[in-house]
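Q: Here's a chain of 191 amino acids. Please give me its 3D structure as tokens.
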Amino acid sequence: MKTLIVVCNFDKNSFNHAIANVIKEEYLKKGHEVIYHDLYEDNFSPVLTKGEYEEMEINSIQDSYIVKCCKELQEADIIAIIHPNWWGQPPALLKGWIDRVFRRGVAYKYSPEGKSIGLLKAETAYIINTSNTPEEVEKQIYGDPLENLWDTCIFKICGVKSVHRMPIRGIVKSDNSIREKWLTDVKEFIN
């Protein structure tokens, strides 16, 4: 089994990185091949240029990092994405990664009628995001935009059948004992 893990937080000491490392350790223990991307560490450029957009098919992409990421995405059995909630969205760097990697011909294609057809092999995706927004505010006022984004707008279009999101709220008020509990919850969540 291949597990693709993508973390997007500029701070290597962030709780997002702690989550990503726990997930990595859990899948390595299970004998998975783990592909791990820290988008900041990778110095990823989020800009999808007009030229790259016009090279939509994978065999015409010039950027070797994007080609590698596209192949990893296609080969992954499980996908785990970890990020903070910034203004009801993932960080711009992660959005750019989606724009450049979840591309037509890699993650989806169109039927002759114009309907999206998912191409990803992965059956399961896990999204863990951290935030400071209380759950009732997230759902009642904002409508939980990250749930809709990851489940409906990205993974379901790309053919991933089982999409699970775990928001971890109240980061700013948490201490080490709460964070240790959350890391245990993450282990249970992905198992």
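Q: Can you summarize the key feature?
A: The two ends are 14 Å apart (CA to CA).
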